[in-house]
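Q: Could you fold this chain for me?
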Amino acid sequence: MAIAKAERLMNLALCLLGTRRPLSKRELRGSIEAYLEAGSDDSFNRMFERDKDDLRELGLVIETVESLDGDIGYLARRDSNRLPPITLDAEEAAALGLAARVWQQARLAGAASGALQKLRAAGMPEAVDEYDTQHSAIEPRIPVHEAAFEPLMLACRDRRPVTFDYRKGNAAKPEQRQVEPWTLECWRGHWYLAGWDRERRAERVFRLSRITGRVKSRAGAFTAEVPDVSTVRETVERWAGESATRSARIRLRSGAGYPLRSRATSVREGGDGWDELEIPYGHGLDAWLVEFGPDVVVVGPADLRADVVDRLRAVAKG
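A: Sure. Below is the predicted structure, expressed as structure tokens.
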């Protein structure tokens, strides 16, 4: 089945690239054997529309032209489907190859590999493979396990409002949110969505691992202006805990919590199997501390300790 479809797509692409005038559906059906074998007009139309969308997804520019008689024709002009000369040097090619490998554990793995193959076919230096061999210890990865990632990525791209159920870290049950999605950002191995919360009429940041159920797209335009991407990134960092305004004092079990130790401004070793750390305290620190479970005890400030206790109780309730 896969071979038959690939052959059909190739034949359709050759027909569209080889013609000097737009070809109608009837002409294309008579030129491609697989279309002739379609059982009915409806079956052919569905097959043709799928094939046309697949070719466009692969990068072929297909034009739809309406004649003076109102007939619809299709063609793919060669000048519109010809890549400009590739002028990448070996180091630039290596950087692209490394970037493509970042997505190999994510849903974008196919798109990244396909883009790399197109660039190689267009003349990108093959030194990228030599770079990978010599630097095999460099294995960049962006893991994406949340089912919400792909629909949110598409919604950000297409500027479509979405709704989803979201459980805050200190809440026992999720609640529905109506959001105009701006962008997705990865921070400390977790994915976050930044956008405009319509009910709260304010910007908000949502951690994808706390989105439950399906992400549903909604019709209509955005009601709030989308800020610059760098501003959105700063928002994610601030909400996720990057921007610290105070210091927190915690007790950390000896030999545990190395990410916390790397951010500590001071570490005092205790003789009871616990160390005392001073770490920057910003928005989101309570959620991060909860991830270390029984290896962390918050000494102060009191509001941070209370937030961590609330989150742990919510987790215990399920």
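A (continued): The longest strand covers residues 175-187.
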